[in-house]
């Protein structure tokens, strides 16, 4: 049996998850990205982890002053105490006070003396971790690309005998602004940070591990944000990597007629799409299931893209659902998602924290249109939602997706053709009968078993959610213009007769 190679933590929990533990020690790594991508912050986190472990660490800076590093650290609530900062502040420091300018360019002497000073500092401190910031300045000192690459190779060979893990930072501000493939081949691993400016909203940041010799890492792009405390990295979700055994059972709403539509209710590990026009009661229907789950002692989470949380709770409480008490007890968490402030990776990470950290057993996304609108210019959003639903299914979580339709009566449409990703589809429609605007509910799809094929009346008022008898004396209810051809008492008339 081959033993696993030892690794060291990068000081960033999310990044360590992507690396499946951390970085192999005593190697040379390249951390590249444009200015503002978060390279310095990640480098400081790497060194602070070493400080926490009692290791000597060294930050060599050719680009930033110690005051600028202090400012970065202060913005995150960190102290640079324990980090040896080696700053090249002037040409005189590199060349010596006795150096006299001549008609020859000093770059040959500058580069050679810079390398010599670095080696002297390393031999004096004997660091376990080292960050070199940045290669762009060395590229400028070298002037010639061939000389620059030779010096990087010489540094690699020197560090190889010093038992030190090195992060080389490159801000890609060379003459071409392109990645140096030769530099990639010299390094044991390459990590790229990107900053993307959108037409509206906050900038998006993402990272990618380009290569890492001898380590199985999570490939692809991973969203991250820079917050107080450092980089918060959201590893890309892979549903197949998550599975737990759970009991497959129906989840009831405690409303018999509603549960009968799905022959007991949605099964655990399934997703239900509730679709219909604005104001028809889609969200309220999902809240009925949430309230029932909370009453059974389960934790639930609602992600609200469209409606204010206070409005949602007040409306639910007016119908007797009493969500306030579950919010106060911590069983129910309602998160307001601000438009253009969240990436798909961050949203998936929020869901993971609720499911794995708080053991949430029911998730409501209100709504899919809001989800799409909150992440402008993002790619493959429906595919990412499909992966998220697959993940929730693997863990036995019940999911409700709210999907508004355009129009009120007659022909209606939706901008999202996403019914294929849901296991069940509940349709709510308006129709007119006896001079009143009414609602009808029906099940279009129930992938996990049988369901009623009837169309029933739905009523939502201060008495809560009620489901009536099948509308057997109407034709064309789903068109919004039904034709009445028999005698039938509707819900308010039946109540009056009683």
Q: How would you describe what is shown here?
A:
Helix 6 (135-142) packs across helix 7 (145-160). 39% of the residues are buried. The chain is 33% helix and 26% strand. It is α/β, with parallel strands linked by helices. The model is unreliable at 90-107 (pLDDT under 50). The protein has a 9-stranded mixed beta sheet, with helices on both faces. The chain contains 16 helices and 20 strands.
Provide the β-strand percentage band.
Answer: 25-35%
| Protein structure class | alpha/beta
Major sheet summary line: 9 strands, mixed
Give the fraction of residues assigned to helices.
Answer: 25-40%
The end-to-end span amounts to: 76 Å
- Counted beta strands: 20
**Widest β-sheet, arrangement of strands:** 3-2-4-5-1-6-7-8-9
Instruction: Please tell me the overall pLDDT.
Output: 86
Radius of gyration: 30 Å
Count up the helices.
Answer: 16
Unreliable stretches = 90-107
CA-based shape: elongated
């Amino acid at each position: 049996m081959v033993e696993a190679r030892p690794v060291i933590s990068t000081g960033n929990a999310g990044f360590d998850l992507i690396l499946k533990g951390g970085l192999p020690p005593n190697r040379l790594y390249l951390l590249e990205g444009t200015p503002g991508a978060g390279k310095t912050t990640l480098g400081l986190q790497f060194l602070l982890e070493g400080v926490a472990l009692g290791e000597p660490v060294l930050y060599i800076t050719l680009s930033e002053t110690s005051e600028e590093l202090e400012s970065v650290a202060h913005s995150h609530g960190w102290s640079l105490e324990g980090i040896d900062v080696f700053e090249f502040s002037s040409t005189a420091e590199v060349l010596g006070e006795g150096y006299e300018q001549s008609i020859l360019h000093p770059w040959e002497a500058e580069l050679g003396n810079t390398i010599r000073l670095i080696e002297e500092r390393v031999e004096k401190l004997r660091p376990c971790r080292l960050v070199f910031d940045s290669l762009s300045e060395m590229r400028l000192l070298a002037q010639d690309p061939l000389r620059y690459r030779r010096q990087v190779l010489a540094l690699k060979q020197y560090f190889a005998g010093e038992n030190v893990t090195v992060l080389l930072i490159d801000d890609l501000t060379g003459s071409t602004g392109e990645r140096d493939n030769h530099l990639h081949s010299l390094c044991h691993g390459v990590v790229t940070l990107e900053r993307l400016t959108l037409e509206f909203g906050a900038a998006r940041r993402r990272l990618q591990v380009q290569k890492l010799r001898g380590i199985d890492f999570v490939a692809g792009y991973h969203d991250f944000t820079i917050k107080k405390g450092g980089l918060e990295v959201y590893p890309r979700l892979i549903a197949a990597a998550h599975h737990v055994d759970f009991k497959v059972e129906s989840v009831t709403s405690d409303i018999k007629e509603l549960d009968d539509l799905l022959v007991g209710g949605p099964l655990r590990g399934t997703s239900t799409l509730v679709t219909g026009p604005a104001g028809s009661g889609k969200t309220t229907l999902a809240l009925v299931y949430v309230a029932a789950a909370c009453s059974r002692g389960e934790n639930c989470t609602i992600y609200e893209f469209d409606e204010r949380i206070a409005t949602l709770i007040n409306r639910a409480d007016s119908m007797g659902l009493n969500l306030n008490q579950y919010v106060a007890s911590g069983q129910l968490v309602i998160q307001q998602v601000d438009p253009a402030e969240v990436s798909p990776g961050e949203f998936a990470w929020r869901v993971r924290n609720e499911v794995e950290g708080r053991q949430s057993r029911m998730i409501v996304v209100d709504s899919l249109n809001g989800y799409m609108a909150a992440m402008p210019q993002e790619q493959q959003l429906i595919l990412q939602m499909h992966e998220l639903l697959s993940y929730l299914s693997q863990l036995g979580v019940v999911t409700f997706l709210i999907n508004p339709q355009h129009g009120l009566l007659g022909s209606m449409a939706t901008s999202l053709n996403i019914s294929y990703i849901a296991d069940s589809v509940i349709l709510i429609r308006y129709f007119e009968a006896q001079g009143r605007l009414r609602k009808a509910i029906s099940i279009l799809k129930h992938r996990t078993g049988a369901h009623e094929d009837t169309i029933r009346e739905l009523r939502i008022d201060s008495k809560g959610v009620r489901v009536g008898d099948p509308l057997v004396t109407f034709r064309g209810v789903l068109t919004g213009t039904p034709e009445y051809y028999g005698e039938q008492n509707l819900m308010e008339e039946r109540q009056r007769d009683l």
